[in-house]
Give the backbone structure.
Amino acid sequence: MSDISRDSDTVELTADPVFQYGEKVVSRFTIRNDGTYCGKDIGEVLAKKGDVGFVTSIGTFLQQYYIYAVEFLGTGHRVGMRGRELVSLDNLPPHVVEILGDRVTQLAAIKAGDERV
């Protein structure tokens, strides 16, 4: 356990969670199994950068961080992720909506269980 990186200055639990149950999110990074995901080899990809999923539960880790369980639509994997590894698709800032243009309606059409992702 000595390899756990703790940002000792950061305690997320003093504020409300950034994401809510059912919120549509996208992975900012490729996430690999660190040995905590049963049935997959260590190092196997669980979520790719850009994969879309939904927050299914919110827990904590080390009495310091929120961990969001995200179920990814394309793979069916439910992966525990930190807030910094995710971006909300339900609450996009206005400048991002402006850049995305018509693609915002495509993002809004993504629903849980949608196979077209």
